[in-house]
């Protein structure tokens, strides 16, 4: 896409994934506006690009946000603002519902009422699948979420699709599998690095070590979002965003141990958190078909994440 004078709105743009996306958009000379309420981030994540972008502190459920979407004629909107994790949705399903589903239908309806025509790409999640019966998981596979977060993401995808079918809006949903990388201060890779920094000799692993994840490095998530923006027909399609390769928690832990040059022993709790499925491996042929190809192996992504960790902690 030619970025000359193109304007892009990124909701949740100061978050983990959003800030990496904003950096790439800025590098491609898009005019970027970030909307974030800083519930789960600070502008520190945007330090490298703050002088090149507009940052608006507001809630995506506010009238002020609706006015921005109505008054400005954005060429592209990436909707990433959300409660981004399963545990808060289990603790407080209404909080998740308001930040994820209400915000999305509010954005869709604001665009429709304002008769705007941006490319709209929303961040969904592999949580829509629940516990898949077979892998790799294709987009056509039955969706059966097992957390409030997953059901909210599924509903937001369906609304996004329906607004394309019924009102002709240009939309797509990106189902991110487990993301990791610099600036993410939670989840498996960050937790394991932190535990090993504290105790380099032993590490407790949640579950029995056989739980499998398709972990995708944040730069590959950004690549996927840009490929969707550039090449998707934007007819409501959903895309898996992953690597197509699964790693067990024991393999992930061992890769980090090796990268840190340690010789740690693992012990296992045997049980997992409610809402956490056992095996996730994605089929990524649909997004490959529009030009996406993951560029980071687990070892490469972990190396970069450790470099960031060591520079900032
Ligand atoms: N990180 C992952 O592994 C993962 C996996 C699947 C899907 N996703 C989705 O990707 C998106 C980005 O996730 P992330 O990992 O960068 O999380 P994040 O928490 O770092 O980023 C989300 C951002 O949204 C902001 N936000 C939350 N509610 C808001 C509201 N009501 N108004 C304005 N801003 C608000 C937060 O302050 C934060 O900066 C989310 O939609 C998330 O559900 C993430």
> What is the H/E string?
EHEEHEHHEHEEHEEEHEEHEHH
Please, how many domains?
2
Helix/strand-derived category reads alpha/beta
Rg for CA atoms: 19 Å
CATH topology assignment of the largest domain: Rossmann fold
Count of helix runs: 10
What's the CATH architecture of the largest domain?
3-Layer(aba) Sandwich
Catalogue the ligands.
nicotinamide-adenine-dinucleotide
Low-confidence stretches: none
Largest sheet: 7 strands, parallel
Give, in spatial order, the strands making up the sheet with the most strands: 3-2-1-4-5-6-11
Overview of the structural elements:
- The chain is of the alpha/beta class and about 325 residues long.
- The chain has helices at about 15-25, 65-70, 85-90, 95-115, 150-165, 185-200, 220-230, 250-260, 285-290, 300-310; strands at about 5-10, 30-35, 55, 75-80, 120-125, 170-175, 180, 200-205, 210-215, 215, 235-240, 245-250, 265-270.
- The strands form four sheets. The chain has a seven-stranded parallel sheet with strand order 3-2-1-4-5-6-11, sandwiched between helices.
- It is globular.
- The model has no long low-confidence stretch (mean pLDDT about 95).
- Bound molecules: nicotinamide-adenine-dinucleotide.
- Nicotinamide-adenine-dinucleotide binds near residues 16, 37, 38 and 125.
